[in-house]
Amino acid sequence: AIYYEQIGRLIAEAWHNGTHLDINKNNFGYQYWNGIIYYFAGFKPDLVIIINSIASVCIGLNLYFIALKLSGPKAAKISYALAIYYPSAILWSSLNLKDSLVIFLITLIVKHTLELIEEYKLGRLLLISLLLMALVTMRFYAGILIAICIALSYIFAASKFPWLQRIAYSFAIVIIAGFVLQQMGYGFMGTDYILSQNFETIGEQHQNAAYGEGAFAEDVQFDSFFDALKYLPIGVFYFLFAPFPWQSIGAIRILAVPEMLFLYFLYSYFIAGFKQIWRTQRGACLFLLLFILAFGLIYSLGSANIGGVYRVRLQVIMVAFIFISTGMQNSWALNKIFGRFTKKNYPNQPTCL
C-alpha cells in the first residue's frame, strides 16, 4: 500500500512539473490510477481507499445482478451479502491495494459476458474489450486468462444461437479480444506471453512465491508436465483450504481463521448451486465453471505462499459465490432461520391462501 502511495505521488508531482514518470512494469495501471487521483485531488491516500470501498460494494452489485438473472431474487440478495461482508473483501478494500478494482473489473466482465451469451451485441463486446484493457493494466495475466475463457466457451455456451451464428460470433470475439491484447503488448490473444511460459517458468514463479512464514512446498520442481500434474492436487488443496486454522500468517490470522471456517461451510453449497444453474442456464454455467477452473488451477500451480493464496483466491471465490448463493437459497436450515426471523419481526403479517 505504501509503495502505491509513493509511486502515485511521484507520478502526480511529475505531471504537475510538466514531466513524465515511466513505470517499467507490466501491471502499471494501479500506479497511474493513484497518480491521477493525487494529480486532481492532491495527495489524499484516504480518497483512494474510499474509492476502493465503493468498488467493493459494486462487486456485490455485479454479483447481485448475475445471480438475479440466473437464480432469482433470493440468491441475488445472498450473493450481494456474501460479497460485501466477506472478511478478506473488507480487508483488501480498506487498504490502498488493487484487489478491489481488479475483482470489480473481473465480475463486471463476467456479467457482460453472460449477457453476451444471452444476446449478442457488438457494443457489449466492445465494452468487454475496454474492460479487458483496464484489467490487463492491473493484472495482465488475469486479463489474458479471462479473454481466453470467453473465446473458448462462447461457441458452446451461446446455445440459443444456431451453430453458424455461434461460429461467427466466436470468431468476432477472438478477433476483437485478440487485437486488444496485441495492442497491449502481449501478442494476439496473449500468445506472446503464453508462448513464453512453460513448466520451468511456472516453477520459477512458484519458487519466487515461496518466502516467509507462509511458504509451502518450497522444494517443488516443475521440470516436466508430470511434475506439475503430480503437484496439482497439493496445490489445489492449499488453494481451497489454506490458511488452515492452526497456521500463522501474521497479523491477518485473527481475520483469516473465522473466514476460512466460514468458507469451508460455504463450499458445501457449491455443488447444489452448480446443479441448479446447470439445469436452467447451461451456457452461463459452462462459462462460469471454465472461469473458476482456469483461474483456480493456474493459481494452484503458481502459488507457494499462504498469504498470496489468501489474496488471489478472492478473485475466484467471488465468482463462485454465484453458485454458492444459488445453493444456499434452497437450504432448509437457512430457510428455517430466516422464516423465524421474519415471523418475529412481522407477527401479524397475513398469509395468502
| Domain tally | 1
- SSE class: mainly alpha
- Give, in order, the helices and strands: HHHHHHHHHHHHHHHHH
Distance between the termini: 58 Å
Tell me, rounded to a whole number, the average pLDDT: 90
- Give the overall shape: globular
Described by strand count, sense and barrel closure, the largest sheet is:
none
Strands, helices and their partners?
Layout: H1 2-16, H2 29-41, H3 45-71, H4 73-85, H5 87-93, H6 99-118, H7 122-138, H8 140-157, H9 163-183, H10 191-195, H11 199-209, H12 225-241, H13 253-267, H14 270-280, H15 282-302, H16 306-328, H17 332-345
Structure overview:
- The chain is mainly alpha-helical and 353 residues long.
- The protein has one domain.
- It has 17 helices and no strands.
- Helix 3 packs antiparallel against helix 5 and helix 7 packs parallel to helix 9.
- The radius of gyration is 21 Å and the shape is globular.
- The C terminus is likely disordered.
